[in-house]
Amino acid sequence: MKYLLKGAYHYDKAGFTKRNILIEGKKVFYINNVSDDINEDALGEYLPIDLTNKYILPGLCDVHVHFRQPGFSYKETIYSGSRAAAAGGFTTVCAMPNLNPVPDCLDNLKEEIEIIERDSIIKTIPYGSITKGQMGRELSDMEHLAPYVIGFSDDGRDVADGELMEKAMEKAKKLGKIIAAHCEDEVMSAGGVAHEGAFARANGLKGISSLSEYSRVLRDIELAEKTGCSYHVCHVSTKESVKAIKKAKARGVDITCETAPHYLILSDEALTNEAKYKMKPPIRSESDRLALLEGLAEGVIDMIATDHAPHSASEKAGGFAESAFGVVGLEVAFSACYTHLVKTGIIPLKKLVRLMSVNPVKRFSLPSGYADFSVFDLDDTFIVNPDNFISLGASTPFEGEKLFGKCLLTIREGKIVYRNI
Ligand SMILES: [Zn+2]
After folding, report:
1. Closest C-alpha to 313, from 413, 393, 400
2. Of 112, 128, 244, 249, which has the fewest Cβ atoms less than 10 A away?
């Protein structure tokens, strides 16, 4: 079946132009400006979808999600997670390896890949772990994992042993793969539940210092520079990390980084003692948030990733002291960023598209050249209601908020994987 997406504002490098796009098979077959006539004879039979005044973006890409399978399918599955991603406009995601079994060897990874092939409706690409069992003691079977993974990460865990991280980087460099690091000195952050700042003090909660993040960032920058490895910092949350990454970039270190919507939109002064605000790293101070926004504007922060980290309702019951770290993100990330960053004039829409699609595709060499699109109605609003989520996780700091930007259609390799129109 051919689809003709008619009359939407279509993104390209120059900005947005009203276009008609004909999709056939996995590819874009034909594209023209709306002001030009359509040569109907040349098109043959097609199914038109009227998208006048809507926006067609390249499929959104998220290099940091937790789909929890195999091992923790009571939190999320590849089936539910990939459908949640499609509902948020994502066509490609990269799945973190804190699973059971951990994809630290080919046999374990194959278990995950089999489920992906069976159940994922979008492109889900796994990470391999850096260390065996994510225990931080010996390296995973990186050589054998390399052909099947997007890169290596021990996300959720620290690689405390600097020598081991250096070896991992040397190997990753040889294999042409990226290292995506969760930067947290776990000795320093032990027992902490919230940013070491105003909110933690006011609520008598143990803090997680900024130093516990940026000390690791600083160490890894040195190692990345020494080894020449392609290095990516996950979920940057502190102003000091932004500063360190900016300096490293300026002297040519092969480094990129991501942050997540909640770090750009919220700061700890505004929090209440509810589990929906608890994640790692924690939501930091207002000065950190402002530094992250500056980092976006200056290109120090390369991309926005959700760190979609679903848990069961009982794991997210209670407040900061009792609940698990992590919130869901896929179904609201674009709309939250559009509402809080684009509508408010902080960044233009085309910059958001680069942060959520173009830049991750480039840095992680994600599959491209296919008819991958997300269509949004940017004028339509919705109230974030976790009861309506496709994800099995329901905890989001944006619960109850009115957001602009409703996802109408997600197309992955020419196939409609989500439709709400
Ligand atoms: Zn992490």
Report:
1. 393
2. 249
Cβ atoms 202, 187 nearer than 8 A:
no
Given the residues 104, 307, 372, 377, select the one marked as catalytic: 307
Q: Would you state the structure tokens that stand for residue 386, as one six-digit string?
A: 């976790």
Residue 280 Cα to ligand 1 middle (Å) = 6
Q: What is the pTM of this model?
A: 0.97
Neighbours of 401 (CB within 10 A): 18
Q: How far is the CA of 157 from the centre of ligand 1 (A)?
A: 7
Q: pLDDT tens digits for 225-278?
A: 999 999 999 999 999 999 999 999 999 999 999 999 999 999 999 899 999 999
- How much distance in Å is there from the Cα of 155 to the middle of ligand 1? 5
Cross-strand bridge partners of residue 139 = 131
Structural domains in the chain plus CATH codes: 3-53 (no CATH), 60-371 (3.20.20.140)
Q: Which amino acid is at 66?
A: H
307 assigned to active site: yes
